[in-house]
Amino acid sequence: MKKLTLRNAATLLVLLLAASVLAFGAAACGGDDDDDADPTATSETAATDVPEPTTGAEPTADDDHEGDIAFDASSATITVDGDSADWAAIEGATVPLVQIEIPEGVDWDEPNALDPVDATLKVATDSDNVYVLMEVPDDYDFVADDHNLSASIAVMFLIDAEAGPHMGAADDDLELGLGMVDIWHWELDCAADAISGGGDAGSGDDPDCNMDDEFATDPEEREDDGGGDAIVNPAAENSLVGGWSHTASASGNGADGTWIFEMSRPLQTGDTQDAQFASGGEALIALAYFDADESLEGWTDTGHLQSAESGWIEVTLP
Q: Could you report the per-residue pLDDT of 219-248, keeping only the tens digit for each?
């Protein structure tokens, strides 16, 4: 079940007042839920079974992607294997993903146009771990030796209170880092039957499957935990685990279906470049999806679909 936050209510009041003012001055001016689920049993679905996507609740954001999306996480223990059966009784939210609008004066490559999509986000915790499910309706694209020709995702969490949802920046200045964010950055270098993550000790790097534990302060400064020129972190921790699948993978590249990305990490890692989670607390989340159909060479850095236009997604932990 979705929650109307104070910020949502305030935003609605401002919009209503603004509408009245615009109507009065039009002649003079022109212009353009949540039900906590009982802990579920681990999935017994065979690896050869085709997983079915789950469904999310409608977002609290309006059609212009203004305001916040908010929902409650559930208590559950999830088997991270790319099979979403564990999540069937868990509610989440539908999250609109759109391409970023590059402001005038920002020297970034113009992306190829992509239509918006509605992703599903669900979150659960048990006494040890936080679990995240991201589902994206899109055709199946996987090329084992070129991850730009495969779908990719990123899930981002706020660390510093001032950080914006654009990798640490805010809408009004995408080149100004306001604080640190934690990024689970997953480029698909391993097939669906492999479990990704958990790479090099003392680093956020996953050299095998490329599910990296990263941090950023703005869209141009993204590093693996433990790396970077400005921040030294010898205690970098990387215990991310991920499993993925696609409901139409058996039909080959180009088949319509839904991507299923399951992820997990301990609630507390002790890593200053990770977000830390606690029972009764709040996780602030943003999502990104990289579509391999963006160009003949696959997705580009600037062309990904993202949720930052909706602000931070507020998830209350059980």
A: 888 888 987 655 668 778 889 999 999 999
